[in-house]
Amino acid sequence: MKVTLPVWTIAAPIIAWLLYLIPGQGMGAVYLGLLTIGLFGGVLAAVHHAEVVAHRVGEPYGTLVLAVAVTIIEVALIVSLMMAGGPETTALARDTVFAAVMIILNGIIGICLLVGGARYKEQTFSLNGVSAALTTLAAIAVLTLILPNYTTSAPGPVYTSSQLIFIAVVTLTLYGTFVLVQTIRHRDYFLPSHGEAGDEEAHAAPPSLSTTAISSLLLLVCLAAVVLLAKALAPSIEQGVASMGAPKAVVGVIIAAVVLLPEGIAAVHAARANRLQTSLNLALGSALASIGLTIPTVAVLSLISGLTLTLGLDIKSTVLLVLSLFTTMLSLGTGKTTVLPGVVLLVIFAVYLFTTVIP
């Protein structure tokens, strides 16, 4: 059965690239508005193409495709902004990675549990797979975002060069081991249960090889357009944050939100279709890829460029991170969910956003 692609999913990345390449001098706010529309069009198209690829390759490889692809874009965006901003952006990687983890654990998973619970009352998932992801995420988050505050070889929330190299290797080892477990050793832990996937989409014939190849190419085109448009909008975002008198950490939240939008939409869509396992694979896989690939890459960049990489969180952020990890583990600790944990996680997310703007 041949699966054709909607015209808008092909047109969106082309329009996004044209908006980026065509100069907009003198257009002011109109051009910024067009860039924003192009950005979200690219994001929505990326979601569609990622789902096509995911349907073809199956679980859990499909969710891994989107997680790694979007994380590569996140890394590219952070690196480009750090190189352009210099010493003033030493905390950008920390702020963005922390924001990504908070958005995923509280925002995306919270919405998924709320939407799924409201529609189906109770949903189930594989406890083994989720436990493996949360265990790995907790270890990486503490080692990269909390431990730097308590080492004594260098003053401040930073690692020395040798410590940074060691933590980068440890982080990559943990993430690589998780991917090995997810895709080879214990792949069955991350597969949807037989009672799941009751929608027509889950039982539809997979797309053809040619359609999958086109979607794979368009996915890369969409993600590249998203990062370039986000980079073009970054100065305006920074100016807007500064004019509001908000902390610089808000920039990291905005970057993470834009980058995670494709995965967020895909995860919520899966939860609404009663495919919570796929939804959690997407969300937790994204969190792991975000922190597990971004920190080592930025660590290497800082060592090469000589920039001091600020990693340690302040006390307020540390409390919220620990609370998020603890609450998520309890919420996903039984293999079944209802609307209650979804509401709890969304409340924590609201507290995080509020205290980021008004610390």
From TrEMBL:
Keywords of the record, alphabetical order, are:
Membrane, Transmembrane, Transmembrane helix
A Pfam family the protein falls into: Na_Ca_ex
Its main subcellular localisation, reduced to a broad class, is membrane
Task: Please give the start and end residues of each transmembrane region.
Answer: 5-22, 28-49, 61-84, 96-115, 127-147, 159-181, 217-237, 249-270, 282-309, 315-332, 339-358
- How does the entry describe its membrane topology? Multi-pass membrane protein
Sodium/calcium exchanger membrane region domain location: 29-183, 216-356
Q: Which residues form a coiled coil?
A: none
Q: Where in the cell is it found?
A: Membrane
What is the protein's name according to its record?
Ionic transporter y4hA
Protein species of origin: Iodobacter violaceini
